[in-house]
Amino acid sequence: MAGLQQTNSEMILLSWVRQSTRNYPQVNVTNFTTSWSDGLAFNALLHSHRPDLFDWNAVASQQSPVQRLDHAFNIARKHLGIEKLLDPEDVATACPDKKSILMYVTSLFQVLPQQVTMEAIREVEMLPRHSRVTREEHIEVHEQHFSQEVSFSFLLSSCFSKVLVSLP
């Protein structure tokens, strides 16, 4: 049951991210690892909700992945009160740590508008299976990080109890 709850929470979170970044053609978030390593997804997520904070084109076209990540984390700290939980160099890799990305995106979810449409959730359900969390991955992570998973699942549960789902 906990695995199902976490998978559903991740699906809602991914739906929210995809819905929020839909208008940014350079961004296609399909997971909580590789989709974040170039820094564009974090910046697009911030810009979609707070376009007054920075010039998207300047960030997207002129900076390296580490610079873009540093920019997003600094903007989130300064304007949203989210501590810099991640080091840009740790995210700008071939495969960033999934739990770290999830925790940070959940922090953003807590402070930014949270409305998610059913269409966005259906879109995530249609993503190729390898892009989403599988039960086997969940069991493996659960065995390796039980205490972290319990606290993460609790955090997501409390966050998603507040999410608004819009029906078409």
Automatic annotation (TrEMBL):
Domain Calponin-homology (CH) residue range list: 7-113
PANTHER family: SPECTRIN/FILAMIN RELATED CYTOSKELETAL PROTEIN
Cited InterPro entries: CH_dom (IPR001715), CH_dom_sf (IPR036872)
Gene this chain is encoded by: Dmd_2
Domain of life, per lineage: Eukaryota
Designated name of the protein: DMD protein
Organism: Anthoscopus minutus
Family annotation (SMART domains): CH
